[in-house]
Amino acid sequence: MKLATLRDGTRDGRLAVVSRDLASAVHADGVAKTLQQALDAWQALAPRLAALAAQLDAGRAAGAFAFDPASAMAPLPRAHHWVDGSAYVNHVELVRKARGAEMPASFWTDPLVYQGGSDDLLGAMQDACFASEDWGIDLEAEVAVVTDDVAMGTDALTARSHVKLVMLVNDWSLRNLIPGELAKGFGFYQSKPATAFSPVAVTPDELGESWDGGRLHLPLLVHVNGHLLGRPNAGVDMTFDFGQLVEHVTKTRRLGAGTIVGSGTVSNCDRSLGSCCLAEVRMLETLAHGRASTPFMKFGDRVHIEMLDTQGKSIFGAIDQRVVRSA
Amino acid sequence: MKLATLRDGTRDGRLAVVSRDLASAVHADGVAKTLQQALDAWQALAPRLAALAAQLDAGRAAGAFAFDPASAMAPLPRAHHWVDGSAYVNHVELVRKARGAEMPASFWTDPLVYQGGSDDLLGAMQDACFASEDWGIDLEAEVAVVTDDVAMGTDALTARSHVKLVMLVNDWSLRNLIPGELAKGFGFYQSKPATAFSPVAVTPDELGESWDGGRLHLPLLVHVNGHLLGRPNAGVDMTFDFGQLVEHVTKTRRLGAGTIVGSGTVSNCDRSLGSCCLAEVRMLETLAHGRASTPFMKFGDRVHIEMLDTQGKSIFGAIDQRVVRSA
């Protein structure tokens, strides 16, 4: 099934089931008012949401209406935990080269994660607001999963069964703030502003054979101002799958239901497939021509992130955001 | 007023108003079921909670009962944002010395923060569970504030007015996991397990003249296994006040209501006042005697963190936790 959170003036929005073709939706209040409430009691409520989805897909859901992705908040407009990995290690290697930083060999065996802000997650079509273009505004197109409760010390295989939903992410990064912030030793904070998510989150069964339990084997399509930036396959060159990422993050903690775990910027070693962030494009330009020619994003620029299934149909709807100057 | 979240089998608990002397409490369901709900509409609901508190303190609250701190969850059992500063820079300097790391001079002018896990916050008397003593289990006694909604780009003075609640924190740290994790460059994750909070959170007016709008000028009392570890004054040597910390964290983000901002380990330059974490004790021992003799915490050890007002009465109740091996 596919789930969205519709804007209704509240902080957590109103849960809706969305049809497989993303054309229609139906409020799911009868089951749970919000997605967090559904995740809090997923085992009991997911079958009821699935039944509603089946009715909707069969054209028999009472109260169905046209689904407008512009009315979608982030599936979880505020979550309790948003941890983002850097699972495509070839990307990490490139970005660090761009910063003039060496990458330790352990990065190929020990996942790298950081914790993002989870109190302010953006809807797919919400503007991304920044005070200055000088911060080096960059998109990062990713895949993320939402877990239920996960115990401390969960192994990678068991962790796979805790993946309840899958969605797309635009993990905005402020590249020019990163070097100074990382030099302080405590990781990202100011350099990682509010993150945006696809209009719908889907259960893994919606992905068919493209989902192998830990990786999503489909191209992630990224456009900037209408031009294709990249279409790497999210299942290729993902050094750590979602099970391994969850194992890593539960070493010393348990995860609460509704935890969002991100893949990090998708990146394939096959560079003909392009990139999912501008930093990678700029690094490749520097390697090829001695200097980066693609600028970071400017006010008014747009980014479009989408994933199509094997029939060419949008799975998650599109993240389609405009960069604007904050008021 | 003083607020607690009582265990009722739900994830977010049940909001209660607690009497000034911490002896009695009354459910606040008539105003808000949970503290997050109260914070979501603080301007409208705080006066109603304050009225209930006044009734309780006057012995006229219907349904009042004895307050048992063991029944308290964290005031916010799960929050949407928990960001911890390192405002006592002399502590940062010492801990880094202990790690053999130099501290850049900019640390005296540019606050250091990291984002902690906010999906699993521990009550004051909940056990702290770890898989191994080898991780270097350490307490960190701190002060924290809870904000309402704060806009991006808020200055330090304005930020002070967004402090709605104050509480105590035990920010557990796994010292032996820190060097390896920080070396990866993305900051803390595995080395910062679930954090614990005092039984009650209080509004700043409860602190009288001890609260200057940005700092809490009272000793923080820390005992380990019944022995005094430290009693530094939280208002002394706090290089960045809470207003400055909020200014720092809103540079590129807005904060959602219920954001928790921590001070970092309280530490005074006057070393006769002791320490609020074992790492600092061990560093001072190393400097004085060439080696650290105080071990990190073992299974079965207890930590007690409390703050008394100028009349010697407990303000927040005590954090009193036992270290146990995770099941």
List keywords for this structure.
327 residues; globular; six-stranded antiparallel sheet; 7 helices
Q: What does this entry look like structurally?
A:
The structure is a homodimer of 327-residue chains. Chain A contains 7 helices and 19 strands. Chain A has 327 residues and is an alpha+beta fold. In chain A, strands 1, 2, 3, 4, 5 and 14 form a 6-stranded antiparallel β-sheet that branches. A 6-stranded mixed β-sheet of chain A has the order 7-6-17-10-11-13, covered by helices on one side. A 5-stranded mixed β-sheet of chain A has the order 8-19-18-15-16, with no helix packed on it. Chain A is globular.
How does the major sheet of chain A shape up? 6 strands, antiparallel
Largest interface: A-B, 55 and 55 residues
Helices of chain A, by number, come to 7
Shape of chain A: globular
Structural class of chain A: alpha+beta
Q: Radius of gyration of chain A, Cα only, in angstroms?
A: 19 Å
Q: Based on the structure, what is the oligomeric state of the protein chains? A: homodimer
What is the element string of chain A, with H for helices and E for strands? Answer: EEEHHEEEHEEEEHEEHEEEEHEHEE
What's the N-to-C terminus distance of chain A? Answer: 38 Å
Q: What is the averaged pLDDT score of chain A?
A: 96
What is the share of helical residues of chain A? 10-25%
Strand content of chain A: 15-25%
Q: Which regions of chain A are unreliable across 5 or more consecutive residues at pLDDT < 50? A: none
